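Progress note, project year one: complex with NAP.
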Amino acid sequence: MSLRAVRGTGMIRLSVSRHATRSRSQPYRKQPQVRAIDAAQSFDSESKQSENLHRCKSLKIGVVGFGNFGQFLTKRFIYGGHTVIATSRTDYSDEAVGLGATFFGDVHDFCEEHPDVVIFCTSILSLESTMYNFPFQRLKRNTLFCDVLSVKSFPKQLFQQILPSHFDILCLHPMFGPDSGKDSWQDLPLVYDKVRIGVDDSRAERCASLLRFFELQGCRMVEMSCEEHDRQAASSQFITHTVGRMLGTMELAETTISTKGFDSLMSLVDNTYHDSFDLYYGLFIYNENASAELARLELAFDQVKGQLFGRLHELIRREHFGEQIKGADARNLK
Ligand code: NAP
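Model obtained:
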């Protein structure tokens, strides 16, 4: 019998291999031998996964906006076997080296590196100005343009308006971030809209390779129009961020008797409160459905509060006016 620890999974597999052994006191018989192999084998799921990662075509990916989210994505791209070059308003040369990417302070130099894919990871608020100052003419005529903004109709419209027609457009939204996707991307949704992908095979294959990267990381792939994304995201993502911010502003602290419900609230704060205010403001300003959802949230809060105070008022009235109020209520009822 062999005992095999599957590296990184905490799983132990047992298998039997018969070896002939004999002790002095016992008659000859076959006994199982225990062996430990602490290395991934070619048939392990772990080995298969890394094999698959490398089956996906390696791309040269240009990240524009190398802040929190740009760096978070870059780390995984590099792990997935892709080459990353980056540019940003701030100098992130050291951070790029740390991640295995190359940083270009000058956006012209960045474009002249001719990435296969350019991904805008700038804040929602700065996308327009960044796009207007971007030297597209220095890129290859055949380049795939993407964004990862948390709102989708806005970048889609801007890309269609500004980008020359020979560029492909793929809008993406990983529905997770550096906090919620810190350990694993397994089953986390990746929304995508193939806005404009040229017909020739190489363009289709490049787009498929980028999507396959997310799939191989474990993402749940959701193909959805940008408009539908914004409709759905207003009542899910924007409300999540709003409630997370409200609770974060309250500065709630762990207690020794915290319930599971409270732990979920604390993890909601963790997953939203560290994002920049620009991001949250962008969700509000650039999603036309957000203000209606905010009004609904406010109304719901008032209703719940109204129920509490309504009952309290009734109690106080009874205490103050006793039977008198009962009589008046009874007359009103009549
Ligand atoms: P963010 O505050 O939304 O964006 C920061 C990025 O925007 C940095 O790269 C920053 O560049 C750039 N930027 C800000 N103002 C700029 C300006 N005036 N001109 C040029 N660049 C400017 O924070 P983030 O979390 O990194 O998000 C980046 C994008 O990813 C956003 O569009 C967001 O919606 C999207 N996203 C974020 C998450 C998340 O959980 N964080 C999840 C999914 C999608 P410098 O650092 O060089 O100043």
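The domain at 45-224 is CATH 3.40.50.720 (Rossmann fold).
Residues 65-70, 88-90, 121-124, 126, 130, 148-150, 174, 177-178, 275-276, 278-279, 282 surround NAP (CB under 6 Å).
No further modelling is planned for this target in the current period.
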